[in-house]
Amino acid sequence: MAEFVGAIDQGTTSTRFVVIDQAGSFVAMAQREHRQVYPRPGWVEHDPIEIWGNTELVVREALASAGLDASDLACVGITNQRETTVAWSRATGRPACNAIVWQDTRTDDLCRAIGGDAGPERFRHITGLPLATYFSGPKVRWLIDNDPEVAALARSGELLFGTIDSWLAWNLVGRHVTDVSNASRTQLMDLETLQWSAEAVEGIGVPGDALPEIVSSSAVIDECRGVLAGVPLAGILGDQQAALFGQACFAPGQAKNTYGTGCFLLLNTGNAPVWSGNGLLTTVAYRIGDEPAAYALEGSVAIAGAAVQWLRDNLGLIEDAAAVEALARSVDDNGDVYFVPAFSGLFAPYWRDDARGVIAGLTRFATAGHIARATLEAVAYQTMDVVRAMEADAGLPLGSLKVDGGMVRNGLLMQFQADILDVPVILPAAAETTVLGAAYAAGIAAGVWPDTDEVAGHWRESSRFLPAMDEAQRERLRARWAKAVEKSMAWL
């Protein structure tokens, strides 16, 4: 058997292809950015043809850089930006329009109309999700209502809808599929049966014949053609679930947090969905073959690294994002300054659209260093809020937190995160956990690795931050943060 595994990582801003070996080490990587299209305020689109073209390019570039052919790969996996929505023709395989990106808010009015008297909770008991612009189902309905070509395809039965994984799989193997993790983000899948929900599909107004077949996250789907001809497509995972997989969080109670523009925290809750009473999302973590699915609770923080960018771009306090740590370390503590970066409301666990950003506790003593420190601490506090909601929902105390993403290089932030959570914060040796998770899922299905125990054996710790704050100080800071959050609410 070939000893290498390939993985496509199709993200919001770029597409990568990596090759790893049986030890989980990276052998080759290539990456290409794609255009962000903003037709109107609040609208964000991508060109599916550009994304597929870039996918072919990065596959060729990565294989060439390692001196490999497609035949050297045992299998390939896909991980992707999750809720971004593509509509294309079954007959021609051509997109009917640009993809609507997960960030796009054009379905706001439609979501309210679909919710009716029940409001955003209408389908949560089925899908684990509130009706929101974030998810894919309403985006398809919007396209049918507003794009004549999509409407014509729907009337003729030729419309195919999918998230980005489905679009890539269609071009790779010619089958219309999605995995359970991506399907669980459409607002259309029944979390219990792992099949499309007739109630949600009809209620949102999506043609059932346009939906892809739902498959396991780790399963041989078919052989690829074209640039990866003959290589089995054997794994698909949404990006945040792939990071959970790549971090080897296979046991209930294990969690990872990805620190990027925002934060995405997932907690493995085992083989049954945990319905949130604290403002979190219930989602499928992954499914391996015919085994029972693993589920997760997810909490998202809208503004994390974006708050640092705001200090740089709007206030001019730093020249580059990396400089924020040095500025924050110029003071001994936050000087009783708290920054709640609710620039467009508060996400989990508050879900307050009426909140707006506040900096509280300012005195003449406060400096740029205190504001920088408060900015970093805000990321940790927001993560703490999500963790506490998860613990309440799942009844599972967090023993440690595995972390990844660009902000984990900030030692001050990571130490404060450990202090305020009162658990160890653990960094992996392999920082690219998302694409690694996709490769592992495919490799298990193809027999490169026998099971998740083998994969977990490849996970290596880079460093850890241990809590070093006394309980009285921790509780004082938590209380002051809660007070600042309250001040941000009901601004609108």
CATH-scheme architecture of the largest domain = 2-Layer Sandwich
Could you give me the name of the CATH homologous superfamily of the largest domain? ATPase, nucleotide binding domain
The chain-level mean pLDDT equals: 93
Distance from N terminus to C terminus (CA atoms, Å) equals 61 Å
Could you describe the 3D structure shown?
Strand 15 and strand 16 (263-270) form a beta hairpin. The strands form seven sheets. Strands 17-18-16-15-21-22-23 form a seven-stranded mixed β-sheet. The chain has a six-stranded mixed β-sheet with strand order 3-2-1-5-14-13, with helices on both faces. It is 35% helix and 23% strand. The model has no long low-confidence stretch (mean pLDDT 93). It has helices at residues 48-66, 108-115, 124-127, 136-146, 148-156, 164-173, 180-183, 198-204, 239-246, 305-313, 324-328, 368-394, 411-421, 433-446, 452-458, 471-488; strands at residues 4-10, 14-20, 26-33, 45-46, 73-80, 85-89, 99-100, 159-163, 177-179, 189-190, 195-196, 213-215, 218-223, 232-238, 255-259, 263-270, 281-286, 294-301, 338-340, 358-360, 401-404, 425-428, 461-465. The chain folds into two domains: 4-215, Nucleotidyltransferase, domain 5; 248-492, Nucleotidyltransferase, domain 5 (2-Layer Sandwich). The relative contact order is 0.12. By secondary structure, the chain is α+β, with helices and mostly antiparallel strands.
Write the layout of secondary structure elements.
Blueprint: E1 4-10, E2 14-20, E3 26-33, E4 45-46, H1 48-66, E5 73-80, E6 85-89, E7 99-100, H2 108-115, H3 124-127, H4 136-146, H5 148-156, E8 159-163, H6 164-173, E9 177-179, H7 180-183, E10 189-190, E11 195-196, H8 198-204, E12 213-215, E13 218-223, E14 232-238, H9 239-246, E15 255-259, E16 263-270, E17 281-286, E18 294-301, H10 305-313, H11 324-328, E19 338-340, E20 358-360, H12 368-394, E21 401-404, H13 411-421, E22 425-428, H14 433-446, H15 452-458, E23 461-465, H16 471-488
Parallel strand pairs: 1-5, 5-14, 9-12, 15-21, 21-22
Antiparallel strand pairs: 1-2, 2-3, 4-7, 6-8, 10-11, 13-14, 15-16, 16-18, 17-18, 19-20, 22-23
Helix pairs in contact: 4-5, 9-14, 10-12, 12-13
